[in-house]
Model the fold of this input.
Amino acid sequence: MMTSTWAIALILALTFTASAGARERPPAQASPELWRTFARQLPIGSIVKIRTKEGERLTAILFVVDATAITVKPKTRYPEAAKRIAFDQLADLEPQQAGVSYAKYAGVGAAIGASSLLIFWAWAAAQ
Done:
């Protein structure tokens, strides 16, 4: 029992360590060449968080990576045109992590369980 627990812990540690270090971002004051190299590693269509040197922040979908700039489609409530951002204007480029919200899932499960219990009680009271 103890051996399997350690094995599972080791597998999880190695899995999460490898995925965290697989795609390291360049430092905040990186050169345009580093941003270009990093952007080329990202799959087209991925959701990225961008901060420019002017201070503009946006979440966008990566469309094109070329020699001088990236082209992104901002994710906004109202549709906007695609933006071309030069690598020398980038202060930060970060792929958005698709995390799972366990708290949200627990809340939905609790709400479903509570409503099922109330429906059962109402049905039992009507009998």
About this structure: The two ends are 49 Å apart (CA to CA).
